[in-house]
Specification:
Protein name: DUF2787 family protein
Radius of gyration: 14 Å
Organism: Serratia aquatilis
InterPro entries: DUF2787
Number of helices: 2
CATH architecture: Roll
Structural class: alpha+beta
Oligomer: single chain
Largest sheet: 7 strands, antiparallel
CATH topology: Nuclear Transport Factor 2, Chain: A
């Protein structure tokens, strides 16, 4: 699996489990219990061939909560995103991406997600 930031073995194993022989694949990891009150945030991951193109996590924001991008690792564009700080070079997101992967692997192993493609 190719990516401009290091990938953890557990994360690669999850992606390989759902990978199909197609040029492009979008995987959606959703917790049925997620709501504006809390829970495990939904995640969308796009694979382009054997390359990780992006990982986007969503969260509810606002007075009248709407699901919006809360964290985005866009490897294809070389940019990372967080609310209130905006976009910056993906290389600045190395430590955060490592922490995010660790948490995602733990949540996945705990069975909190339903996965669709």
């Amino acid at each position: 699996m190719k990516c401009s930031l290091p990938l953890q073995k557990g994360f690669i194993a999850i992606l390989e489990k759902y990978r199909k022989p197609v040029d492009e694949l979008i995987l959606n990891f959703r917790s049925p219990d997620y709501s504006p009150e809390g829970g495990y945030r939904p995640v969308e991951i796009r694979l382009f061939g054997d390359t990780l193109d992006y990982v986007t996590e969503f969260a509810y924001f606002g007075l009248y909560p709407e699901l919006e991008k809360s964290l985005d690792f866009d490897f294809g564009q070389g940019a990372g995103f967080q609310p209130f700080t905006g976009y910056s070079d993906i290389r600045r997101y190395g430590e955060l991406f490592q922490l995010w992967q660790k948490n995602f692997i733990a949540y996945y192993r705990a069975g909190v997600y339903r996965v669709t493609s």
